[in-house]
Write a structure and sequence with these properties.
The chain has helices at residues 4-11, 16-25, 65-70, 90-101, 109-114, 119-130, 134-151, 157-162, 168-179, 222-232, 246-259, 276-286, 296-302, 309-317, 344-362; strands at 35-38, 43-45, 59-62, 74-75, 191-197, 204-209, 212-218, 239-242, 294-295, 330-331. The chain is an alpha/beta fold. It has three domains: 4-75, DNA Methylphosphotriester Repair Domain; 84-189, Homeodomain-like (Arc Repressor Mutant, subunit A, Orthogonal Bundle), CATH 1.10.10.60; 276-362, Arc Repressor Mutant, subunit A (Orthogonal Bundle), CATH 1.10.10. The strands form three sheets. Strands 3-1-2-4 form a four-stranded mixed sheet. A hairpin with a 4-residue loop joins strand 1 (35-38) and strand 2. Helix 13 crosses helix 14 (309-317). The longest helix is centred in the last third of the chain and has 19 residues, at 344-362. It is flat. Mean pLDDT is 84; it is low at 1-14.
């Protein structure tokens, strides 16, 4: 059986007629490759949508959700194309569950094959959705778990063994390579723990220290955004490692509640770095009520400097914690959406989502 990533490479350049045939056949192999806009209804669908199929002349194809929404198409209620793209398929979920239960888990290619998983296919999936190989992902998680145990007062020996290393020298070498400091330095150095989260608007990259969430942003370029996060982590600590952290687990749950319309306010500590002006601008953002908007002028007035409109806009653009610090709630003075670093289409969706949730709760139509 060919790997899913192979199918992406082979099919991404095929003619629309092939995509239309895939739509007719409800071919799940094209998930994430195209979305179909139905001109007669104004909705867009996944390739495997169970709805009745339109005529060829009534279909237009998009290679991203963004394109479909920018053209004014609404998400289909049957196939729900805004559900989290990148959710691991069933054959990966069991492997990920093992890793979550045991941070020291080492799964070699032979172990994967024994579980009926093709190592090459798994490696390609991780490269596509995480920007790294599966084995690299495992190593960073093991080092991160060891770092957290040592930082909390544990001895170096136990975390080394828990991480699956047979010798202390091998553990020390691997630890220093990943972090830039020896295991004993865990007590004085801070590492940013990073995790990819999934959302209806695409994957997000989140990071935290023990102090709080320090960044959350949408991933446009999986590999590039991971590298960018790692290079910028020096502002918060000594480096960045993928791994588990209670704050990131809470963030994942609260984000899901937000997108399901079950949460208006996030209850998470934040680790914010910035100038005094930026912090004042971001605090003003936190004071904008759910489902409401303010203009840049009004935000400037909120911090007591009505002339600082441009500076406020710059501070919003520098906001590292999307959605939680809701810069999407700031619009132009004329009511236009203005800019948004993650794309105006996402800003439009977030504002519409919040208004729809509020409307349902208040009984308004």
């Amino acid at each position: 059986m060919k790997a899913e990533s192979d199918k992406v490479i082979n099919h991404a350049v095929l003619h629309d007629d092939v995509w239309y045939r895939a739509l007719l056949e409800r071919d799940k192999g094209f998930e994430g490759i195209f979305w179909a806009g139905i001109k007669t209804t104004g909705i867009f669908c996944r390739p495997a949508c169970p709805a009745r199929k339109p005529k060829r002349e009534n279909v237009t194809f998009f290679t991203s959700i963004r394109q479909a929404m920018e053209q004014g198409f609404r998400p289909c209620r049957k196939c729900r194309p805004l559900l989290r793209y990148g959710d691991p398929p069933v054959w990966i979920r069991e492997i990920l569950a093992e890793i979550e239960d045991d941070a020291g888990e080492q799964l070699r290619d032979s172990d994967l094959r024994a579980r009926g998983v093709d190592p090459v296919r798994l490696r390609r999936w991780f490269r596509k959705y995480h920007g790294m190989t599966f084995q690299f992902y495992l190593r960073t998680r093991r080092i991160n778990a060891a770092y957290r145990k040592i930082k909390s007062g544990g001895k170096v020996t136990t975390p080394a063994m828990d991480a699956g290393y047979e010798s202390l020298s091998g553990f020390h070498a691997a630890f220093r390579k990943q972090t830039g400091f020896p295991p004993s330095g865990s007590r004085i150095h801070t590492l940013v723990t990073v995790r990819q989260l999934l959302s209806p608007l695409g994957p997000m990259l989140a990071g935290c220290t023990d102090e709080g969430i320090c960044f959350l942003d949408f991933q446009e370029d999986v590999q590039g955004d991971v590298e960018k996060a790692m290079s910028n982590s020096g502002e918060f600590g000594a480096g960045t490692l993928f791994g588990a952290h209670p704050l990131l687990s809470s963030l994942d749950r609260q984000l899901e509640e937000y997108f399901y319309g079950q949460r208006r306010r996030f209850e998470l500590p934040l680790h914010i770095m910035g100038t005094d002006f930026q912090k004042r601008a971001w605090q003003a953002l936190l004071e904008i009520p759910y489902a409401e908007t303010r203009s840049y002028q009004e935000q400037a007035e909120m911090i007591g400097n009505r002339r600082a409109v441009r500076a406020v806009a710059g501070a919003n653009a520098a906001n590292r914690i999307a959605i939680i610090i809701p810069c999407h709630r700031v619009i132009g003075k004329n009511g236009g959406l203005a800019g948004y670093g993650a794309g105006v289409w996402r800003k439009q969706y977030l504002l519409a989502h919040e208004k729809a949730v509020l409307s349902r709760e208040t009984g308004n139509t």
